[in-house]
UniProtKB/TrEMBL annotation:
Keywords: NAD, Oxidoreductase. It comes from Aneurinibacillus migulanus (Bacillus migulanus). Pfam families: NAD_binding_11, NAD_binding_2. The active site is at K172. The lineage of its organism: Bacteria, Bacillati, Bacillota, Bacilli, Bacillales. This is 3-hydroxyisobutyrate dehydrogenase. SUPFAM superfamilies: 6-phosphogluconate dehydrogenase C-terminal domain-like (SSF48179), NAD(P)-binding Rossmann-fold domains (SSF51735). Residues 4-162 form the 6-phosphogluconate dehydrogenase NADP-binding domain. GO terms for molecular function: NAD binding; NADP binding; oxidoreductase activity. Residues 166-283 form the 3-hydroxyisobutyrate dehydrogenase-like NAD-binding domain.
Amino acid sequence: MSKRIGFIGLGNMGVPMALNLHKAGFYVTVYNRTYEKALPLQEHGLEVAQSLDDAVREKDIVITMLANDEAVEEIIAGDDGILDYIEAPTLLVDMSTVSPDTSCMLADTAKEMGITMLDAPVSGSVNSAETANLVILAGGPKEAFDTLQDVFQAMGKASLYFGENGSGEKAKLVINLLLGMTMQGISESLVLAEKFGLDRNIVLDMIQQTTVATPFFGFKRELLAKEEYPAAFALKHMLKDFGLVLEQAHKNGSVLPATSAAYQSYASAANHGLKDMDMAAVFAELLHASGVKK
């Protein structure tokens, strides 16, 4: 019998992830606090629950994909939260990007109630979610990770196991530090080129033809060329993740001076109205700060 999945959180990433689970043959029930936002998924054959209780009760797996620590804590362990409605052997999988501390706390709370929980945040953009090319970064009991392989394969091209609860979230912060710093470095190099008076398109060609070119650069090149930033990964989410990185670095003694500086760039961009644009909009912030007028 097909596994029954309750999927909670229908943002830009959650919708395509839930659809891919349905396409893979799982019986998927979705829930979003704004009920109307979930209704279009009925047209694709997914069940839309009107309450959290209906979404998660008697499911084999419950997946959460939410915006931040506060939302995840509330939906899992708050009053009338998921843990009030599920019982073993249901597996609880949080695929949100949150603090490792929050993830471990929730896993401990779930364990006290007999529920196994994994953290399994994803690396990839909306396009990666739509094409089932996410990379899933997991922490928690290995047996549960192995049990979920068919579920992860429906949403991603790879799933990596890092160890105990919280380690998936730690891995996500590691890769997103590199992601944010890469965008910062590309943006700074382009700002310098602008101030030199070099043609931006030729500079972009130069980057593309050298060893520093990456698939990530290819994804962002057109946005930088046109200074148009439809969100694949919103700047506000990158800012949140940088904040989580620096919080963990402060706790474990990691020295990350460049990350601290990049955090300030993203924070300034958010304060100047760019938070809902793609993370590449940090380039626009640096152009503005450098006095480059368009």
